[in-house]
Amino acid sequence: MNIRVANELDYPDLRMIYLESRRKSFHWADIEEMTVEDFDNDTVDEYIILAEEESQILGFASLYLPDNFIHNLFVHPDFSGMGVGGQLVNASLEKMNKPIRLKCVSENQKAMRFYENNGWKKVVEEGKPGEKYWVMVYE
User: Fold this and answer.
1) Looking at the 3D structure of the chain, how many domains does it have?
2) pTM of the model
3) Could you list the residue range(s) of the whole structural domain that residue 109 is in?
4) CATH number, domain with residue 123
5) Least C-beta-crowded within 10 Å: which of 43, 56, 105, 134?
6) Nearest-5° angle of CA 11, CA 51, CA 32?
7) From first to last of its 139 residues, what are the pLDDT tens digits of the chain?
8) DSSP secondary-structure letter at 32?
9) Is the distance from CB of 111 to CB of 103 less than 8 angstroms?
10) Are 104 and 136 in contact (CB under 8 A)?
């Protein structure tokens, strides 16, 4: 598996991964409101890395470097559970300075377990009912 910085030629695949991953796993959200344009809107000014194997993009992470913040981490549903997320998190940790933060939707139990199993700690739960998320930190 290769981790590298994304470029504009990767964006069509990244848009689809972002859309398909959210539609498949965000059971609390209205999937009809999700569009391919969401990727561009949700990654403005972010440093994007991706995981690929044999020229196929498996997933990506978008980082807001000024705040040492992992904003997005998504793996294509077909490659979930194969270590892609862990590789992307490790590459993200190498790019930023600790402590590193992220937010994880409280209802996303699979993601919460993933982060906690990889050394992240819950700091505080924020947001209004139905939109709660945990601020998590890696030190």
Assistant:
1) 1
2) 0.88
3) 2-138
4) 3.40.630.30
5) 56
6) 50
7) 999 999 999 999 999 998 888 777 765 666 677 777 889 899 999 999 999 999 999 999 999 999 999 999 989 988 988 999 999 999 999 999 999 999 998 888 888 999 999 999 999 999 887 789 999 999 9
8) G
9) no
10) yes
